[in-house]
Amino acid sequence: MAKANKRTPPVDDNASASPGRRRFMTALVAMVPTIASATDLTRPAAAAASLPGPSERVPDILPNRPARARDIGIRTGVLSPGPMNAITDVAGVAVGHVTLNEGDSIRTGVTAILPHGGNLFQEKVPAGFARGNGFGKFAGSTQIEELGEIETPIVLTNTLSVAEGIAGCVEWTLSHPGNEQVVSVNAVVGETNDHYLNDIRARAVLKQHVLDAIRTATNGPVMEGSVGAGTGTQAFGWKGGIGTSSRILPTGLGGYTVGALVQTNYGGTLSIDGTPVGQLLGRYYLKDEIDDHGGDGSVVIVIGTDAPLSDRNLTRMARRAFLGIARTGSSMANGSGDYAICFSTALPVRRTRERRQNVATFAEVPNEMVSPLFQAVSEAVEEAVYNAMLMASTVSGRDNHRLDAISPRVVKDTIARYRGQNTAG
């Protein structure tokens, strides 16, 4: 595992490298300060890109108070987040949740992501899809792979409620003016299995819940943690949930925004910003070969960008999402369903009725300029996972099962001690 408190990109001194790659690496290196000896999260360190700068004092965190990663000094990667540090930093993207917390056994919900606020069926957006380990159910994925486009909201829920997710997407689509002649809808629904806390066989999610999540979606800050489709999910043996983050490229690299939203429900050996937090706190996959903090589970990743991209390059971006998941400590185990979907909201590549019926020309980001977007994806996904865990609350549910939230204060202190020990050594 990496023990450094930041990632320094390699300098590309190969004279034969492509112009696009040279521009990308030059910009990244310029963004990362010279290496120095900062070792903890409690004081500013101009030398550490992942730590707060002199004007970014890390606030004291109460032991049981949820906090986002940046609230405790974790600065993942080298690129800057957007104003909300959320997928909704991509203009037009909206997110809605319905959370079901009923009795002592229903702990589930729905999260809906809308690429734009118009008629998605008539103004489809280009998209790409990728899988890590494919133990899961992702409705609509084969048509996305075949046609490279999305025509409904993206709905996340639990494994046994995919059918309700589809029904909600279809009804929402058919209800739109202009869709009176529509007879086929490719609903996009992802899932993870929340049966540990949730009585999943009760199938508490209804079509109306899906419609409510879609209709109440907003473009503002996104609720995180034990909410929506993340109400009953876990991460590395702690409470997981919904998390989000974003990155904005420097103007010289296009100035594009990339946002990610995750539904975590997977395991492994938790690593936060290069620190083996799971090992240090004694909770990780294969510990003593008997502890049940396994690597199985699932994660669904939704990525949006305003960069004008082809569906082929959006697929390439979706694949890079698993770099961020790997950095958190996942090995994508046999029982894990790991899926990523990536779409572009850019008007030049939007698939309107007119463009679908005629030969069209449009501007798109070429291959030589997509590497910074790959970097943005991996960084945003990694931080979104941290936010999902750190913003979660402890939840009890079915059969008195309980998942404790990881304490942001404990995480902050653990990282500081680990970095201090390694520097001292």
What features would you describe in this structure?
The structure is a single chain. The protein has 425 residues and is α+β, with helices and mostly antiparallel strands. The protein has one domain: L-amino peptidase D-ALA esterase/amidase, CATH 3.60.70. The protein is 25% helix and 19% strand. The strands form 4 sheets. It has a 6-stranded mixed β-sheet with strand order 4-3-12-11-10-9. A 4-stranded mixed β-sheet has the order 1-2-5-6. The protein is globular, with a radius of gyration of 21 Å. It starts with 18 loop residues before the first helix and ends with a helix.
Topology:
Elements: H1 19-31, E1 94-102, E2 106-114, E3 125-134, H2 141-147, E4 149-150, E5 154-158, H3 162-174, E6 188-192, H4 207-215, E7 234-235, E8 238-239, E9 242-248, E10 257-265, H5 277-280, E11 297-305, H6 311-327, E12 336-344, H7 353-357, H8 371-390, E13 395-396, E14 402-403, H9 408-424
Parallel strand pairs: 5-6, 11-12
Antiparallel strand pairs: 1-2, 2-5, 3-4, 3-12, 7-8, 9-10, 10-11, 13-14
Helix pairs in contact: 3-4, 6-8
